[in-house]
Predict the 3D structure of the following.
Amino acid sequence: MSLTPKGEARRAALLDAVLRVLEREGPGAVTHRSVAREAGVPLAAATYYFDDLDDLYLSALRRATEEQVTLFAGTDMADLRSVAHLIHRWATENRGAALAQYELMFLAMRRDALRADAEAWYGALEHAIDPHGKNPRQTRVRALALDGLLLRILWLGEPSTVDETEKALREIVEETRAAAT
Amino acid sequence: MSLTPKGEARRAALLDAVLRVLEREGPGAVTHRSVAREAGVPLAAATYYFDDLDDLYLSALRRATEEQVTLFAGTDMADLRSVAHLIHRWATENRGAALAQYELMFLAMRRDALRADAEAWYGALEHAIDPHGKNPRQTRVRALALDGLLLRILWLGEPSTVDETEKALREIVEETRAAAT
DNA sequence: GGCTTTCTGGTACATTTGTACCAAAAGGAG
DNA sequence: CTCCTTTTGGTACAAATGTACCAGAAAGCC
C-alpha cells in the first residue's frame, strides 16, 4: 500500500510528464502511453501507480493547481512590479502548470468532485489581492479582472512582456480606486 | 461542389449536434460517430460534409463564436438589467455555444489559425462596453472583469440567478467609475 | 538469513477511433 | 426521358487506446 522512495519518484515523474504532454499537445494527447513515454517509464508503471487514466490526469491537475494556489496566496500584490514578474514566469516557464490549473476549472464545470479545487483558486486570488478583507467589493472586481487578464495572457499571449503586464496590472488597480459606498 | 437544400440542413444539423455533445460530454467525446448519432444521420454523412474531424469540430466552434460575437457586439451595456438577462440566457439555454466559444479560445492558444476568431471575441466585448471608445483604460479593465465574470459563471455556476448577475455587473461598473488621468 | 510486500516490464486483447471505399439512390439540367 | 453530379448509407480496416495479467526482480522487515 505504501510507496518506496523510488516508487514515489516515479509517481512524481509521471505527474510532471502529464503537465508536459498537456502543454505540448493538449488534453486529448494525455494517454497512458504518451505520459509513460514522456516520463521515461514503461507503460505498466502508469497503470500501477494510478487506478485510472482519470486518476492520473486529475492527480496531475490537482497538484499543479495546489502549487499555484499556494504561490499566489503567499504573494503580496502591493508591489505590482514583482507581481508582473510572477505572472510572466507563471505564463512562460510554468506554463504547463498554468494550463493544468485552468483545465481543472474547465473540468470542474461538469464534475462536482473538483469544485473545491476550483474555488480554492478563486479564493487564493482574492486573498492575494486583499489579505485582510478590507474592501470586499473592490476586491471581487479586481479578482475578476485579474482572472480575465491571466486567461488573456494564456490564450492570446498578450500582454507578453513583464512591462506590458505591469502596465495592465496598474490599469486594473488605478481604474478600481474610487467608488464610495 | 455546391450543396442541395437538404445537404445544407444536414450540415447544419451536424454542427448543432457538435455543440450538444460538447456541452453534455466534453470535448473528448466529440467524434464522428457520436456527432452523427446525435444529429440522427449516418456516420458517412459526418465525413461527407466535412474534410476532417478537425474541420467538423472547428466549424462548429467558429459558428458558435461568431453568433456570440454578433450577439454581444450588438448589445448596449447601458441597461444592466437586460445585460444580466442576456448573460443568464447565454450561460443556461445557450450553454453549448458558450462552451464552444471558450473552447475555441483554448485551442487558439496552440493554433494560429484561430487567433483572429479569439480576438474578435475580445473586441466584441470591448465594443459592447464602450461603443464609441470614449474611455479606453476603463473599458479594458471592465472587459477583463466581465470576461472573468463570464468564465466564473460558466465554470462555477455562480452567480447563478439574474439578480445576482445584475449585482455582480453593477459592482464592476461602480468600482470602475472614478480615476482621473 | 528468509519472507512478504512492493515494483517491474512485457504482452495480450477487446473496443473505439478516423477515414477510405463503393454500389446504389436521389436530384437537377438539358 | 437521359445524363451527370450530388448524396446516401453501409462496410472495412489499420491504428491507437484503456486495462488486465503475470512471471519475476527488488526492497524492506523479522
